[in-house]
Specification:
Layout: H1 3-13, H2 17-31, H3 43-64
Length: 67
């Protein structure tokens, strides 16, 4: 990955959660026509993606809970 791409990722990470979500949706919208084949995923990659997703959902749920 290029240095420029890494800088974009760092900038993305610094956005507030709502803007991050809007940005991600826009990137997906703009890239849906690009040919892409990630190849087969390993069990470890699938497991790690699941862990990340559940951690994200837990943070979202915690943020939405009244304190």
């Amino acid at each position: 990955m290029s240095q420029h791409a890494l800088e974009l990722l760092d900038a993305f990470e610094s956005l507030p959660p709502g803007e991050r979500q809007e940005f991600a949706v826009e990137i997906l919208r703009r890239t849906r026509e690009l040919p892409f084949d990630s190849g087969p995923l390993s069990d470890e990659e699938i497991g790690e993606a699941g862990k990340c997703l559940f951690a994200y959902l837990d943070r979202e749920e915690d943020a939405a809970s009244p304190r």
